[in-house]
Design a protein that fits this description.
Blueprint lengths: L4 H8 L10 H14 L2 H18 L8 H17 L5 H7 L15 H5 L1 H5 L9
Helix pairs in contact: 2-4, 3-4
């Protein structure tokens, strides 16, 4: 049996302790979910799990739709190109994913800080 399964199940149920769930854990759960499910299924369950964790922490407003789905999209794209590599190899080959500021390559701070970006997924601003 996959040793990760209990952690993945706790995450999906929103049972992980938000104070002990760093950004790297977010990346790991996204990677593992994407290995097991389609992007759309993962997006639904991943976002739901993060909403539950934010609510459990007493901070439902901490959930950010654009950041969640943009990071998930980036992880999915990189994982697809990784050719089935394990997580350790994936993490080693994609160190930028462990920097929360990586989305600044696509999003301006004003756009990401907006209330709209928190509530719904916004595409990056078009580059002219």
């Amino acid at each position: 049996m996959d040793e990760l399964i209990p952690d993945l199940l706790r995450f999906v149920r929103g049972e992980c302790d938000p104070s002990n769930f760093p950004h790297g854990a977010h990346v790991r759960m996204a990677f593992e979910m994407l290995r097991r499910h389609s992007f759309s299924e993962t997006a639904f369950h991943y976002a739901s799990a993060l909403r539950k964790m934010a609510a459990r922490a007493g901070r439902p407003e901490a959930y950010h739709e654009t950041t969640t789905l943009a990071f998930l999209s980036l992880i999915a794209e990189r994982a697809d190109g990784a050719g089935g590599k394990d997580y350790a190899t994936f993490a080693r080959d994609n160190p930028d994913l462990f920097d929360k500021r990586v989305l600044a390559r696509w999003y301006g701070t004003t756009r990401l800080a907006s209330d709209a970006a928190r509530r719904m997924f916004l595409l990056p601003e078009p580059r002219l």
